[in-house]
Amino acid sequence: MSNPFFVAIPASSFLRRRIGGITGIARGVILADVAGAQAIFIIADQPVDEEPIDEDWRKSFALRARALPNVTVLPSAADLPAGTALLPGDALPTKAALEALAAEPALVLARGDPRLVREDTERATVMALLRATLKPTEGPVGRWINRPISFRMSALAMKLGIGPDPITWFTLLLAAVMAVVLAQGSYGWLALGGVLFQVVSITDCVDGDIARVSWSMSRRGALLDTACDMVANLGFVIGLMIGVVGTYGFGYAWIGLACVALLVCGIGAMSVLVRMGPKRGSFDVLRAALTNRLEGRPTLQKVTLTLERLFKRDVYVLLACCLCLSGLAWLIPGMLLGGLCIWLGAVAWCAPLIAADGEGLLLPPHMRQL
Fold this sequence. Notes:
The structure is a single chain. By secondary structure, the protein is α/β, with parallel strands linked by helices. 61% of the residues lie in helices and 6% in strands. Strand 4, helix 3 (57-63) and strand 5 form a beta-alpha-beta unit. Helix 2 packs across helix 3 and helix 8 (186-214) packs antiparallel against helix 13 (313-325). The longest helix is centred in the middle third of the chain and has 30 residues, at 219-248. The protein is elongated and about 80 Å long.
């Protein structure tokens, strides 16, 4: 039987500061709980009966529907149980820092350790926290183009106290404007609609950035974000098809109708599968399901997952934007039709695996905590 894992957080002036939406104390409490701490202690820096300990971690636990951890305020470090892991008071912890302490509670983490975050300015610290949220499955366009922009937007939003939900609703509004613009037809409107599609793709990253950094994730927010993605995709396809038919003739009408029908079928199928299996709104389970399906065939797995990156939203959105700007919007319907057929094939192949995933093991790590 493993030894109990206890974590102590000093109530320092630095950790009392609200950086990235929550205080450093709250971040320590949340990450200690995620790392499996059986007890969490906060070391007061003034008399306990006068100590206004910030409990804004409670909001995060309520949003994620997790039971509150056992948090105790102690007057000094001398009262800590033997073997308690101690967080530094002059830097923000990361998940990697708590995982390291869970493996070795006696480990001393000092400022400058790559598992801690503290830059020279508050903005630089927030940007470092945002970069730490970058998912390993992030596509190349998202990693090198979209995220560097969305991180700056996210940092500004958090500075202004804007949460993820208003950003999601703004993105939905922008997606509606994009669909109307595309439906007008002609090169100018199609080009503007393509640019708006890329803008929607970037702003759609912001709500997730804010939620992960401020630990304000929730199942409702994840579902709303996925719904926003699907509405934006559907709005683009419908608006584009109307615009292309109006500009290049009715010969594209049947392709447009087929694309809309296939996309609706795919969205519906994935929604049902996610509801049956993980019961959380993330279509990212498809990549994990493909990985599991091809386990034991490493070469085919590597090729398939490499090709899967080409179907990521950031990639096809940028490609569509470039084609619209180049006056080649008429190429998109045929390419889209082929891509949707491949996507639906992958969904059908992985459907049994997704539907049976009642424990949510196919979900991205950050969503398993919801």
